[in-house]
Amino acid sequence: MTVRPARLAEVAGFSIDDVAAAAGDDPDVLRLENLDTDLAPPREAVQATKDAVGDLSANSYLPFIGRVDLRHAVADRVRARSGVEYDPGSEVVITASDGDGLLDALLAVTDPGDDVIITDPTYAGILNRVRLAGARPRVVPMRAVDGAWRLDLVELAASIGPATRAIMLQNPSFPSGYVLTDAEWREICRLSSEHDLWLIYWAFMEGIVFDGGAVIHPASYPGMRERTIIVGSVSMEQRMIGWRIGWIVAPAAVMSDLSVVHIYNSIVAGGIGQAGALAALTVDDDGLAACLAEWQRRRDTVSDQLSGLPMLRAAGGWAQILDARALGVAPATLSDALIARGVAATPMTGWGGPVADRHLRLVFSREPVPRLERLGDRFAMALADLGVTSWTTH
What structural domains and CATH numbers belong to the chain? Predict the structure, then answer.
């Protein structure tokens, strides 16, 4: 009999695909289950990708760490956001998506049995990549404070022990849409320095901050350039999910290990996608500002439609979460009821710890406002089907 490896003992699927399958191809269903968007990538990126098809230079294994001009573009982008210089030759690697980059980072800086601190909720892909690397996730809860998600800094400090090797964070985060404050970042950086920890920073949504909020980059804090591993991609801000192009930016001292892991994990990022990514990162206007305004309108519509329900408005990103347990139902039960009323939404069970396990995720980045304006009525019908009468929408 085949014995399942221990590293997979707690690794489960996303459940997103199950919700998507239940929704089927019905065009009337509001698709809030998957982290997609209908807003188009930059035209220049699409054209550059088409032009690269059949080009011999885009159909090669070399260079393993990514084309030189794209590494320069990534270094320029990180400098513009953080104010910190990185050498494109020795401190940037192009990866086959940010997912590869996250696992590369974990494999390069942790040993089996080490602890990695993450938030609750988090992205299931963070949680389970920690497990795949053989490390142990240590979850620190996010708390609802004055209508926003805030990191429990007391528990963060208490979670650090002799086996802790890294703190792994997104900012903004999904599924919850939290955005860390300067005070939270300062404490994260203080603890990282005091305990000699790596910060694995997933920056793939860092520019998607609502309500005029600032983009705060951890590498800009004193002492953090040498202990921060930045993982980014063109998937979200440039709306290029299907290109599967990402990057790792990190100090030279660890980049040799990151490069080796990258090469044996994914070998090389696709040349056709790299051509599109270069165009997206070097075009005068990648469309982010206009998309940001539209995503904020969609967030506001979801929040208004479900006003009165236990849900915190996202400060950034593409999704926010609703507390199904506060309504007296399991997230999966609510998801099933919503499917029957034409709304696809994913239960967050297994996306962190006890906080995540209470919630249902609502992705607002894919559906336009006129369609999202149907959400309140459909939610109300689903809640009525479940006998939930103590809450009302609108």
Answer: 6-41+287-385 (3.90.1150.10), 43-282 (3.40.640.10)
Mean pLDDT by 10 residues, the chain (394 residues): 78 77 89 96 98 96 97 98 98 95 98 97 95 97 97 98 98 95 98 98 97 97 98 98 98 97 95 98 98 98 97 98 97 97 96 96 98 97 93 60
SS (H, E, C) the chain: CCCCCHHHCCCCCCCHHHHHHHHCCCCCCEECCCCCCCCCCCHHHHHHHHHHCCCHHHCCCCCCCCCHHHHHHHHHHHHHHHCCCCCCCCCEEEECCHHHHHHHHHHHHCCCCCEEEEEECCCHHHHHHHHHCCCEEEEEEEEEECCEEEECHHHHHHCCCCCEEEEEEECCCCCCCCCCCHHHHHHHHHHHHHCCCEEEEECCCCCCECCCCCCCCHHHCCCCHHHEEEEEECCCCCCCHHHCCEEEECCHHHHHHHHHHHHHHHCCCCHHHHHHHHHHHHCCCCCHHHHHHHHHHHHHHHHHHCCCCCECCCCECCEEEEECHHHCCCHHHHHHHHHHCCEECEECCCCCCCCHHHEEEEECCCCCHHHHCCHHHHHHHHHHHCCCCCCCCC
pTM to 2 decimal places: 0.96
Burial of 87: CB neighbours in 10 Å, binned 0-12, 13-18, 19+: middle
Nearest to 222 by CA among 247, 245, 194: 194
